[in-house]
Every structure is written in C-alpha cells, then in structure tokens.
Design goal:
The structure is a single chain. By secondary structure, the chain is α/β, with parallel strands linked by helices. The protein has two domains: 9-171, Leucine Dehydrogenase, chain A, domain 1 (Rossmann fold, 3-Layer(aba) Sandwich), CATH 3.40.50; 190-345, NAD(P)-binding Rossmann-like Domain (Rossmann fold). It is 46% helix and 17% strand. The chain contains 14 helices and twelve strands. The protein has helices spanning 9-25, 29-36, 84-100, 121-135, 154-168, 189-208, 224-236, 258-268, 282-286, 325-331, 342-345, 348-362, 368-393, 397-416; strands at 40-49, 55-64, 72-79, 106-113, 144-148, 216-220, 239-245, 248-251, 278-280, 292-295, 314-316, 338-340. The strands form two sheets. It has a seven-stranded mixed sheet. A five-stranded mixed sheet has the order 1-2-4-3-5, sandwiched between helices. Helix 6 crosses helix 12 (348-362) and helix 6 crosses helix 13 (368-393). The longest helix has 26 residues, at 368-393. It is globular and about 55 Å long. The two termini are 25 Å apart. 51% of the residues are buried. The record marks 149 as: Important for catalysis. Substrate binds at residues 73, 97, 353. InterPro entries: Aminoacid_DH-like_N_sf, Glu/Leu/Phe/Val/Trp_DH, Glu/Leu/Phe/Val/Trp_DH_C, Glu/Leu/Phe/Val/Trp_DH_dimer, Glu/Leu/Phe/Val_DH_AS, Glu_DH, NAD(P)-bd_dom_sf, NAD_bind_Glu_DH. The active site is at residue 109.
Length: 420
C-alpha cells in the first residue's frame, strides 16, 4: 500500500521496480516497507515577495529516504511539475545509486514547484533562501547534503550555503555540493554526470565491440548532463546526429556542429532555431536510428508505446527513471539493446558530490585530474560488478544494478538492527 502523500505514477514506478527485485532477492516481507518507504518527508509553503510587490506562495519539498549508511544526499530541482511523489521516487533511486557505488549516504531529493525561467534572478534568490530557511532543521553536513538538479545550478547552491551559514554563525561549505569552486566546490563537479555517462558508454562500446569512430549518438535533453555527454562522445569520435531540449529537437545525419550549437544556445537559451540541423519532434528523436541513445531529460520518456520502436545498440540513461517498467519488459525481449541503467549511468554527479563533501570536511582540495581519476575508478568498479551480476544471474543490467544497491542497504539495516 502506497501512502497517499506519495501516490504518483513515478513513485509507483519506483515501488514496482523495488518489489520485483525484492522478490528476486527473497527479502522477507517484514523488511520490505522499512527498505522502501522514505524515512522523512518535509512539505513547506513558502510565501515569496515578487519584484512587482505581490506575494506568491510556492510549495517546497524534501524527502530523505534512509539514514542507515550515513547522511542523505540528493539534488534540489525547480520545476513546474515537482510533487512530493516525484521527489520521493527520486530519493529512493538515489539510495540504490549511492549503495551501488559504495558511497556512505542514504538517498534524498528536494524541489520547489515553480518555473525558474519565469522568475527573475532576485525572485530565484528569494525562493532559494526561503526554501533553505525552512529546511535548516533537516539539513546539514552530517544530516542531509543538497546538490543541484533540474532548474538549479552553482548559484542556487551558493545561496543555500550562505543562508545556512548565516544561521550557523560561521561558513559551512559542506552543507551543499555543486557549489562554485571559489566557495569550496570541487573541480570537475559540474561536468561529472555527463562525463560519467560518456565513460560508461565507452565501456559498453568496448564490451559490444563497437568502434567509436563514426558511431552515432542521439541525446535527449541538451542541458548540463546531455550537453557535457554529447561533447564527450564527440571527442571520442562519435557523431552526435540529434539533440533536443524542452522546446524542440534537431537532426543532422552528418553530425551536428556542437561548438556552433553551444554558441547558439548561449545567445538564445534554446537549441530551437539553430540553422545547422533540421527540426524534429521529441517523439521522432527517440526512435532515430543510432548506435547510442542518451535520454537525459525527464522521467518516463521510453514507454510501452515507443519501446519497440527505438533503434539503438546502447541505451544510456542519463536521466533518472526515463524508462518505464512496461518499456523494460519490451526491451528485455530485444537482446540487441544494451542498457546502462540510470542508477549506474548518471552516478557520476553524486560520486563527485561525495568528493566535494570530503574535500570540504578536510579543507583539503584535489586537482581535476585526481577527481576524474577517482570518479572513473568508482564507475569502473560499479560497471564490472553490475555486468558480472547480470551475466551470472541471467538478469538485465537494470535488475542487476538495483539488486546490488538494494541488497547492500538491506544488509546494512539487518546489521544495525531495529531500535528499541
């Protein structure tokens, strides 16, 4: 039974994934709700003064999934569709992601229901500071460490850190990650998720014997993750033949000039109108023939309706939850598609967030080469463990990754016991 406060398509999807894995791992019924249900959820109404003098009440959320392995960790998104159920599902996936990569965290996620593009810089700052103020009893370097997500960035984290530090009476850089480097952020953090996606694609191509030179890639979501992943794949020798953002898509079978596209995006804030490719819809983009498909936008993009139509060799999930369970069942019948599941594929961001947290706690910082070397070592270990589990147990890569993450949290809870 899903509590009504979390009930939403995406939370039901996360629970469905968990239930399938729990059956496979033979986790006792008595332990399942303790593993699945979020430990803590905060919902706040935030009155914010607008530039015109009016007041708008925004809704803010933060969900902490489990506290068994350490403080919780997860992003903060500003988006019109943010709900408590969505945040709860993302927090659950973050738990399995942290456990899969061996990080000493439970999963968390937060968000504000707003359209950041419709807010001025001043309004964004007031929303961020009010949200942080409301969460001060629930966050901290040893409690819960927020990070950027969709609609937020380094500036958002700087405001959050400043608000928390003012209440503490001293600078607390370790309260958030994804900060500007000048405020205690880590070199490589901004690019870490996209670079991690590209690294794991490279490992999958090695596994399948695909030559990067001349291979093709399609990227849905040309933002921080998708944009960095596209550029990294381009440097590896792949042609990026299609990209999209929230406003539209582009296609050029000869390959899109990403440097010129980035100049266009810097001027217009969108890929739409770029003259180096033809316009296509999001639906067309997802079924474009390619070697690598990278969904790096919103959840639930590959569904039972289009899963049979996608034409790729590697499905690299840069976004959280882009593939529904119905689509998974279809893709499982298509052995030609190698899936790099989200909790592995986009783990680079939380891994380098962990590095940033460690550096802040020690006040000792690493150069970018050291950061990236450590990141790739952790991703390599997680990739090898996942593919070995998949082959040994005869299950999909998603099932293998979820099994490893869920089993580790389950074992930790069993070892700690139940108080009192």
């Amino acid at each position: 039974m899903i509590p009504q406060v979390y009930d939403s398509p995406i939370f039901r999807m996360a629970c469905q994934q968990f239930d399938l894995v729990a059956d496979f791992l033979e986790i006792p019924e008595s332990a399942r709700d303790r593993l699945k249900m979020p430990k803590r959820a905060v919902s706040v109404a935030m009155p914010v003064r607008r530039d015109d003098g009016s007041t708008t009440v925004f809704m803010g959320y933060r969900v902490q999934h489990h506290l068994t392995l350490g403080p919780t960790k997860g992003g903060v998104r500003f988006h019109p569709d943010v709900t408590l159920g969505e945040v709860g599902a993302l927090a659950m996936w973050m738990s399995w992601k942290c456990a899969l990569t061996g990080l000493p965290y439970g999963g968390a996620k937060g968000g504000v229901t707003c359209d950041p593009r419709a807010l001025s810089i001043g309004e964004l700052e007031r929303v961020t500071r009010r949200y942080t103020q409301e969460l001060i009893p629930f966050i901290g370097p040893q409690i819960d460490i927020p990070a950027p997500d969709m609609g937020t960035n380094e500036q958002t984290m700087a405001w959050m850190m400043d608000t928390y530090s003012l209440q503490s009476g001293h600078c607390v850089p370790a309260v958030v990650t994804g900060k500007p480097v000048s405020l205690g952020g880590s070199l490589g953090r901004k690019e870490s998720t996209g670079r991690g996606v590209a690294y794991l694609i490279s490992r999958a191509m090695d596994t399948l014997g695909i030559n990067a030179q001349g291979a093709t890639a399609v990227v849905q979501g040309y933002g921080n993750v998708g944009g960095v992943a596209a550029a990294s794949l381009n440097r590896m020798g792949l042609k990026v033949i299609a990209v999209s953002d929230a406003f539209g898509g582009l296609y050029n079978p000869k390959g899109i000039d990403l440097a010129k596209l980035d100049e266009h995006v810097a001027k217009t804030k969108s890929i739409v109108g770029f003259d180096g490719a033809e316009a296509i819809t999001n639906e067309q983009l997802l079924i474009t023939p390619c070697d690598v498909l990278v969904p790096a936008a919103m959840e639930r993009q590959i569904t039972g309706d289009n899963a049979a139509k996608i034409q790729c060799r590697i499905l690299a999930e840069g976004a959280n939850g882009p593939t529904t369970p119905e689509a998974d069942a279809i893709i499982a019948q298509r052995p030609e598609i190698f899936v790099i599941p989200d909790i592995l594929c986009n783990a680079g961001g939380v891994v380098v967030s962990y590095f940033e947290w460690v550096q802040d706690l020690q006040s000792f910082f690493w150069d970018e080469g050291e950061v990236m070397s450590k990141l790739y070592r952790i991703l390599e270990q997680a990739f090898v463990q996942t593919i070995n589990f998949s082959r040994k147990r005869g299950v999909s890569m998603r099932f293998a990754a979820l099994s490893l993450g869920i089993q580790r949290v389950h074992e930790a809870k069993q070892m700690r016991g139940l108080f009192p």
